[in-house]
Amino acid sequence: MLGTTRSWSNSTDGFPPPATSSNPAEVSTRTLRESANMSQIANCHAVVFGAGRGIGAAIARALYDAGAELTLVDRDQQVGTVAAELNCHSLRADVTDWDAVQAVAAKCEGQAPVHHVLYAVGLGSGKSGFPFWRMTPSDWKGIFEVNTLGAVHVAHAFVEPMVQRGDGSFVLLASVSGQFGARNDPPYSAAKAALINFGQVMAMDMAEFGVRCNLIAPGIVDTPMQERVYRANVARFVEAQRPDYATWMQEKLDVNVPLRRPQTVEDIAEAALYLCRAVNVTGQVLNVDGGWVQKG
Fold first, then answer.
1. Omega into 131 within 30° of 0, i.e. cis?
2. Is residue 253, in this structure, part of any structural domain at all?
3. What are residue 122's phi and psi, to 5 degrees?
4. What pLDDT shows up at residue 13?
5. Is residue 110 assigned to a domain?
6. What is the mean pLDDT of residues 59-66?
7. How far is it, in rounded angstroms, from Cα 191 to Cα 71?
8. What's the whole-number mean pLDDT along residues 16-42?
9. 206 within a domain of the structure (yes/no)
10. Cβ atoms 215, 274 nearer than 8 A
11. SS3 62
12. Which helix (H) or strand (E) holds 218?
């Protein structure tokens, strides 16, 4: 078994009671010390959703390098290749399927107590707004199911054992698009905004039990999803006026990003490691965006 467990008494509804002591300083010191033990990633069990490629795979590799015991989850069979590379377990599941996510959580907890859950699943519509009514209501449902409801499924499936033990963290992959109205893909922007709100609710609800939740908001990352955004956006132009991918990317960076360089999947993975370790950080959105959100 990995990690440690604590036995709780007098709990209700499966949740542990808050710590009590006649000496508040003693409670604070003890809680911080216990949380610090779990902040060390080495030998902790981390479950990464969306680990088959892109940012999720980069997060898995960073956790592996930090000494974590991993379970990788994705609906794509590519997750098996990443798991073989990292010599760890993998499971295939669709996050929009509640029963499948529950089964994943049961298998993961049966393997070893889960300390960190990282949700690196994302899906754009593959279409472009400008204005939003160029799209149809049917374009929205699947985007919310993956980006928002999938995270809700994962949170519900994993939370109770974590709060019973009184340690651990969730890290959710949001987007800068969730912090302003991104007209290029309205369903994606709205779904990520909902995810940010839910992540902050999670953080407040779990805090008294010692479990944290934070979010990472990437800016412009050169991934297959970014290429799909490119194709959707340039489709608005006549073929003779369509920029190539590299030109489009640089123009987007020059207009939006003060640092004028793209973020890498490794940048996002480093942020995920920090949030797994940061025992006094919860309810935050960490923008890894080259200054995009700050520029406004």
1. yes
2. no
3. -155, 150
4. 37
5. yes
6. 98
7. 26
8. 50
9. yes
10. no
11. helix
12. strand 212-218
Convert the pLDDT of each residue in 119-153 to its tens digit: 999 998 777 777 899 889 999 999 999 999 999 99
Domain interval for residue 67: 39-222+262-291
What does the mean pLDDT of the chain come to?
86
How far apart CA 229 and CA 125 sit, in angstroms, is 9
Q: Which of 218, 213, 193, 190 is nearest to 203 (CA)?
A: 213
Q: Identify whether 27 is part of a domain.
A: no
Question: What does the chain come to in residues?
Answer: 296
Q: Are 121 and 49 in contact (CB under 8 A)?
A: yes
User: Any idea what the Cα angle at residue 160 is, between residues 166 and 179, rounded to 5°?
Assistant: 90
Q: What is the mean pLDDT of residues 184-209?
A: 96
Alpha helices in the chain (DSSP H): 24-39, 54-65, 78-86, 98-111, 141-144, 150-165, 186-206, 224-234, 245-256, 265-277, 292-295
For every residue of 233-244, DSSP letters joined together read HHTTS-GGGPPP
pLDDT digits (tens, 9 = 90+) for 67-114: 999 999 999 999 999 999 999 999 999 999 999 999 999 999 999 999
And the tokens for 223?
Answer: 């991934």
- As a whole number of angstroms, the distance between CA 14 and CA 179 comes to 34
Long-range contacts from 103-111, C-beta under 8 angstroms, 24+ separation: 104/47, 104/73, 104/157, 105/154, 105/157, 105/158, 107/71, 108/45, 108/47, 108/71, 108/158, 109/158, 109/161, 111/45, 111/71
pLDDT at residue 39 in the model: 54
Q: 């006026």: which residue's tokens? A: 241
Query: pLDDT at position 33, please?
Result: 44
Name the maximum alpha-carbon separation found in the chain: 75
- Work out whether the CA dihedral 275, 280, 286, 288 comes out positive or negative: negative
Tokens of 216: 């990472």
Task: Give the pTM.
Answer: 0.83
CATH classification at residue 111: 3.40.50.720
Parallel, antiparallel or unpaired: strands 212-218 and 169-173: parallel
- Domain tally for the chain? 1
**pLDDT band per the 50, 70, 90 thresholds, residue 217:** very high
